[in-house]
Amino acid sequence: MSYECSLHGAVPAASVAPLIERICGLSGLAAPLVASAKLPQIAEVEMVFNERGGRGGNAPLRIRSDWCAAESSVKTLQDLKWSLLFIGQPQPPKPGQLATIRAVYEAPVMQGSVFDYLDLLDYELTLEFMRKGYRFHYGAISITISCIHKFQSKHDLSSITPLDPSGTWLVELCTERTATENIPFASEKLAQFARNLRGLVDLSIVDINKNGTR
After folding, report:
1. Please, which residues have CB within 8 angstroms of residue 54's CB and are 6 or more apart in sequence?
2. pTM of the full predicted structure?
3. Nearest CA-CA partner of 91 in 107, 109, 104
4. Where in the cell is it found (predicted)?
């Protein structure tokens, strides 16, 4: 079983530029690249599928793909290269726990239609959104700064609008997938990096007991 350690926060639009500048300094991204605004962008589409009819006996499944990484020949979402994911609920925080911990399984779809496969499993689409923003890397840690956009029409990229009109950006620090015995080390590395961002963003653990996040 593999696990993902993460920390989460949010910032107003005015704080995005100084936060990116701090992250670029920590991650060693070249100053000319930052000055020219050629930053590592993402337009990550994610869809959540639940058992048809709301039976809820099995966990939701997700598919995910980055539109920015798509080949020029790709014209529709259905033609993207997708990964199929199961993301477990966050473990309830324990005293001294430094990060959110979830079980995660991910498998790239090598051939065929993932939509047809999920339909055969009797799953239906219940949520579709795009994560637009930037993603940086610092060793085994990924740092994502993004806005969530919702689809007004199914699979229609021209219909996306910001979920939060106020312009709030989400910040996520996330480790590479790791085994159980490596969770303390990975969590400590995450917490160390988060301390370098203090004053710009407050990053915290997801507490399922408070907000019921899945």
Report:
1. none
2. 0.89
3. 104
4. Nucleus
Domain extent listing, the chain = 3-211
Are residues 100 and 8 in contact, defined by beta-carbon separation less than 8 angstroms?
yes
Q: What burial class does residue 212 get, using C-beta atoms within 10 Å of its C-beta: 0-12 exposed, 13-18 middle, 19+ buried? A: exposed
Q: Which of 157, 150, 155, 152 shows the shortest CA–CA distance to 113?
A: 155
What are 49-97's pLDDT values in tens digits? 999 987 767 889 999 999 988 877 788 888 899 999 999 999 888 899 9
| 115: its two tokens | 């939509």
For residue 120, count other CB atoms closer than 10 A to its CB.
Answer: 8
If you classify domain 3-211 with CATH, what class do you get? mainly beta
How many angstroms separate the CA atoms of 14 and 178, rounded?
A: 34
Do 90 and 108 contact (CB within 8 A), yes or no? no
Residues 24, 34 contacting (CB under 8 angstroms): yes
Task: Tell me the C-alpha distance between 178 and 181, whole Å.
Answer: 8
If DSSP codes are grouped into helix, strand and coil, which group holds residue 131?
strand
Name residue 147's beta-bridge partners. Answer: 132
Tell me phi and psi for residue 99, to 5 degrees.
-155, 160
Name beta bridge partners: 127.
48
The vertex-212 CA angle with 208 and 214, nearest 5°, equals 85
